[in-house]
Write a structure and sequence with these properties.
single chain; binds calcium ion; alpha+beta; globular; two-stranded antiparallel sheet
Length: 405
């Protein structure tokens, strides 16, 4: 009898243990809650490259594997956690000047500040007279879609002289390409300059340029394309000799395929009445004039990216956001207060990556969606005043809609 009671007791402990376990065990995260997962429909070869690229994205570089001598961080993922938005803690700094006559500080290490260094080397400081801006990492999920929008489609959204008089102009960032960046088949050029689309000021052409530059400027890792280490031009310490590339082309290629084959953020609660109402308001007060709901891709060898519509809520253009967002820093043809319309997809998941708080806009200065809207000056000011005139409930609906993205 005593044994029987003990047995039942043990059993009930076991059972409750398993029930608790079920509760504690993390379920497989739903695809609409995460950003670092591959698209459906990759070929086995593409999937293999995705996995290799994923590994590379998470790789921490050391002095043995090519880090530095000066750098900003040691891995892609340290800034792009979960392929979501970055934290101000890992922001990087760019310096230059307030006019667009090229960057006058190139021989002093511009545009990017490498604020950390290996032992024996000196981190960079912003030179006297230079202006600067801080950038937090944008979401990397969905960049494969953004890369495939044709230049003609981007140009069609631009309205440099505000012909339709809505107070919104929107221009591409026309920038010169380094000789190792190959223009796409859809490229439109003007006076030797090309329409660029990546980065906070849209000054980078494609994911090849973005990846190669990130290895070099962010981590001090050389490649066939950028064979020289970043060095502190002002400190006078001897640079590490520029030997063989520290990252090979195969690895660069896998990293690019990884970025391209990432699933784009998926909207949640699309059928919720408040969300639907918020979306209508978002369109009617003019937010959608810049944060374009639907774009389409051109041809791609990655089937799920091939000629499809997608919903990033950006026009990939630069807009003058007024004194509110003037950092006195230029890049390519982007003026001091011009910024690329931030894609709003994934916005509702930002807090997951930013410590259950949000840090919005290029440098993370806005601590909520409302605050981000408050900073919309210049071309954004019409829709900002319309937002301010909405009722509390209407504002809430817009925020609920944005949090569903
Ligand atoms: Ca190096
Ligand atoms: Ca530098
Ligand atoms: Ca216009």
């Amino acid at each position: 009898m005593k044994h029987k009671i003990l047995f039942v007791l043990a059993l009930s402990v076991l059972v409750s243990y398993f029930i608790a376990c079920e509760k504690l065990m993390p379920k497989n995260p739903a695809a609409d809650q995460v950003m670092d997962i591959p698209l459906n429909g990759l070929t086995p070869a593409q999937y293999q490259l995705f996995i290799e690229g994923d590994h590379e994205f998470e790789q921490t570089y050391t002095s043995e594997t090519g880090l530095g001598p000066i750098f900003v961080s040691t891995s892609c993922i340290s800034c792009h956690s979960g392929d979501n938005k970055g934290h101000p803690f890992s922001a990087l700094t760019r310096f230059g000047q307030a006019d667009t006559n090229g960057n006058q500080f190139l021989d002093m290490g511009a545009p990017q500040l490498q604020n950390r260094a290996l032992p024996g080397y000196t981190p960079e400081l912003i030179p006297n007279g230079a202006t600067f801006s801080k950038f937090i990492a944008p979401i990397t999920a969905g960049v494969g879609f953004l890369e495939l929008v044709s230049d003609a489609d981007i140009l069609a959204l631009a309205d440099p002289n505000d012909a339709n008089s809505d107070g919104i102009s929107g221009v591409p960032n026309w920038n010169t390409l380094p000789n190792w960046v190959k223009p796409a088949s859809h490229a439109i050029s003007k006076n030797g300059k090309y329409i660029c689309r990546f980065g906070r000021k849209a000054s980078t052409y494609n994911l090849h340029q973005q990846t190669v530059s990130a290895f070099n400027n962010d981590m001090g890792v050389t490649s066939f394309f950028l064979p020289n280490n970043p060095t502190n031009h002002l400190a006078g310490t001897n640079p590490i000799p520029d030997g063989d590339p520290e990252v090979d082309n195969k690895t660069i290629n896998a990293t690019i395929i990884y970025l391209q084959a990432l699933q784009a953020p998926i909207q949640r609660n699309q059928q919720d009445e408040q969300v639907k109402k918020g979306k209508d308001l978002f369109v009617s007060i003019g937010c959608e004039s810049c944060h374009k709901q639907t774009l389409k891709t051109g041809p791609s060898a990655i089937a799920p990216l091939n000629q499809v519509e997608f919903h990033p809520y950006t026009d990939l253009l630069l807009h003058d956001m007024g004194p509110e967002l003037n950092d006195n820093y230029t890049e390519g043809s982007a003026l001091v207060s011009e910024w690329r319309t931030t894609p709003l997809w994934g916005l509702g998941l930002a807090a997951n990556a930013q410590g259950q708080k949000v840090y919005l806009l290029h440098d993370g200065r806005a601590r909520s969606i409302e605050e981000a809207i408050e900073y919309h000056g210049g071309e954004g000011s019409n829709s900002r005043s319309k937002f301010q005139q909405l009722s509390q409930l209407e504002k809430l609906a817009i925020i609920q809609f944005l949090n569903s993205l």
